[in-house]
Specification:
Length: 66
């Protein structure tokens, strides 16, 4: 994720996380890239968690307004 200027969506972050997970599970990550992939996954997880929290807050607010 670092250095990427274009806006990321929850769906694209989730797909990238799945790709990283598959790479790691298959043992397809060269040791030199392992830390980079793990850092990227951590950033993506944080982003997804933030998006889910925001969505939950918005839904709660909308339900309270009814």
């Amino acid at each position: 994720m670092e250095g990427k200027e274009k806006e990321i969506t929850y769906e694209s972050a989730k797909e990238r996380l799945e790709a990283i997970t598959s790479e790691l599970e298959a043992g397809n990550v060269h040791i030199d890239l392992l830390a980079k992939r793990l850092k990227e996954a951590q950033e993506l997880l944080r982003f997804c968690k933030d998006q889910l929290t925001k969505a939950e807050e918005e839904v709660t607010k909308l339900l309270e307004e009814q």
